[in-house]
Amino acid sequence: MGWGTFLSEFTQSPPLPIKVQGMVVADFDGDGKKEIALIDERSLRIYRWEENQFKLLKRIEGSRVDRYLAVDAADLDKDGKAEIYVTSLPETAYQGDEDKMSSYVVAFKDGEYKVAASGVNWFLRVVDWPGKGKVLLGQGKGVGKGFEGPIYEMSWDGKRVKEGRKIEGPKFSSVYGIAPFLKKESLYFAYIDSDLRLKVADAKGNFVWKSNSYYASDISYQTSYLMTHPGAEGGDEFSFVNVRVVVQGDEIVVVRNISPIANIFKRQKAFSGGEIQGLSWGGATFQERWKTREISGYVADFSIEDLGEAGGKVLMVAVNLPKESVFSTASRSAVMVSRIQ
Ligand SMILES: [Ca+2]
Ligand SMILES: [Ca+2]
C-alpha cells in the first residue's frame, strides 16, 4: 500500500488574501528547517511555517505587467541553501516578437533573500530525476505560441541560469507536468500533454498509455490576440501551465481539478474542487491507489516534504478557496496540511 493510505484529515491554515498560483517548500536559508514560498500573480512571499501559521520573512513584488506562473526550488550550486526559481511572463510578452520573459532566481546570501538573477528568458521547472536528484528544466517561449522547442537541463552557478543538454524522452508539449520515473530499472516519463491527459512514454519517446481523465489547470496565459477562426479560444489562444506531477516512492502524485464545465480548454473555467491522487504504474496502465477527499476550490499546487517534525512527511496543498459569496471579489487562498500517520 502507498503512504497516502495513511494521510490524516487536513488542517487548514488561516486564509491569505491572495490568489495563490504556486508553492514550493525547501530550506532556502540553510538553517536546516524548511520554509514555504508562495506566488500569486505578481508577488513572491517567503514564509516560515510554525504551528499552522505563516510568518512572513520576505516579499518580492514583480512589475505591473508581470505574471507569475510557477515557482520551484533546488540547491543547484550546492551551498546548502535552495534557490527559488520563479517563472514570470510579462503580459506584453506576446505583443511584440522580442519581448522576453522575466523569470528570476532568489537566493539567500549574506543573511538575506536577494534576487540573484533576473530577466531569465526561460520557463522553469524543477523535477526529481532518477539517479540525479533535483534537476532544473528550462524551455523557451515561442512566437505566437506558448512553449517552443526542446527542454533543456539547466545549470545555476550562483550568477546565471544556463542551458545544458536536451533531455531525453518524448516530444513534450511543455516543461510543466513532467515526471521521470523508474520501473524495473527502465526510465519512463509521466507527463501531461497539450490535450490535458496524463500520458506515459518510455525513454525513447514511445507512447505507452494515456488517461481518460483530464488534468486541468487554471493557470494560463494569452499567446495570440487575433481570433483567427470561430472557437479559437479552444486552445489556440492560450497556453496552460500544467499542474505539478511528482514521483513519490513507487507512486505518481498529481493534482486533479474538477470542473463542471464541459470545455476545460476555455481560459475561464469554474472548478468546483480538486483532489490529490496517488497513482501506481503497473507496467501497462496507471491505477489509482489513493486520493485525498475533494477539496473545495481550485488546487493550485502541492508539496510532499519532511518538515522535521515528529511524524515524518506531510502533504501540503495550496488552494484558491471558493468565493465567500457571489458578490465578493477578493481572492483568498490557504495551505491545507495532512500528516502521514
Ligand atoms: Ca531554513
Ligand atoms: Ca544554493
Quote the beta fraction. Answer: over 45%
Largest sheet properties: 5 strands, antiparallel
Strand runs, count: 27
What structural category do the secondary elements indicate?
mainly beta
Rg, nearest Å:
19 Å
Unreliable runs, pLDDT <50, ≥5 residues?
A: 231-235
Number of helices: 0
Overall morphology: globular
Instruction: Give the CA-CA distance, first to last residue.
Output: 13 Å
Please give the share of residues in helix.
under 10%
Give, in order, the helices and strands: EEEEEEEEEEEEEEEEEEEEEEEEEEE
If you average the pLDDT, what whole number results?
A: 90
The oligomeric state of the chains shown is single chain
* Ligand names: calcium ion
Summarize this structure as a short list of keywords or feature phrases.
341 residues; mainly beta; 5-stranded antiparallel sheet; 4-stranded antiparallel sheet; 27 strands; 0% helix; globular; binds calcium ion
In short:
With 341 residues, the chain is mainly beta. It is built from no helices and 27 strands. Helices cover 0% and strands 52% of the residues.
Would you write up a description of this structure?
0% of the residues lie in helices and 52% in strands. The protein has no helices and 27 strands. Strands 20, 21, 22, 23 and 24 form a 5-stranded antiparallel beta sheet that branches. The chain has a 4-stranded antiparallel beta sheet with strand order 1-27-26-25, with no helix packed on it. A 4-stranded antiparallel beta sheet has the order 2-3-4-5, with no helix packed on it. Strand 11 (133-141) and strand 12 (147-156) form a beta hairpin. The radius of gyration is 19 Å and the shape is globular. Bound molecules: calcium ion (2 copies). The site of one calcium ion has 6 residues, from loops.
